[in-house]
Fold:
Amino acid sequence: MSEHILSLSYGKDSLACLGAIEQLGWPLDRIVHAEVWATDTIQADLPPMVEFKAKTDEIIKARWGIKVEHIRSKLTAESIFYHKRLRGNRTGQIAGWPMINGCEFQKPLKVRPIQLATKGGITYLGIAFDEPRRFHTLNALKKSPLVEAGWTEDMCREWCEKNDLLSPIYTTATRGGCWFCHNQSVKQLRLLRRDYPEYWTLMLKWDRDSPVAFHQDGHTVHDFEHRFQLEDDGLISPDNKGFRWSMLDSELNFRLL
Ligand code: SF4
Structure:
């Protein structure tokens, strides 16, 4: 008999699968989560998310009797970042920021560990009833209890709220995903620098060592540092509206704000 495994991200849809599985009477043997690590000692999640996961694991153990398995790759974001390329036109250079072809952290740190942990089993994925654009990933081995039970994203959120399982990413400024993500908003970067200066310092170090820019438009973490410092000094507005990178080069422009 195949095992039935929930691939848990701790997002609302993923957690609501627990409710839908209960409602459908589907079997559930294991729950797995791929934990991404920034370095050997620092997780990729921000501390409020780390706390939420620990609290959630206790609730799941108490109510469903299953210990969530936190699996991880031997690699970290830092080890991938500093891995020297053996092929291509950047041979000998370290990888640096993963801006080319999406995110180079995703597969080795998230996708592959989950594939290994769920191999041979039937995996439950948190795809909601109102997300038809994601239905193509479902098949005989990858099922969505939410689609089967007709649960929409709003229903998932409601279920999580009722069961004290709503992640802080929906109710506070906490970011979901990696704190060093190149896809995060300027607002999130500003908050990271303000609230987690030690993480920001690490990003500045990686930025110094990276052979490629943090953003595809060529802007670096140091450019953001410059921008945020000017905001702190009251020289430009922290309101993103009307901001132009050229303001960083022209003292005159600051006075216009
Ligand atoms: S959150 Fe960002 S950095 Fe982390 S795996 Fe996803 S895209 Fe990559």
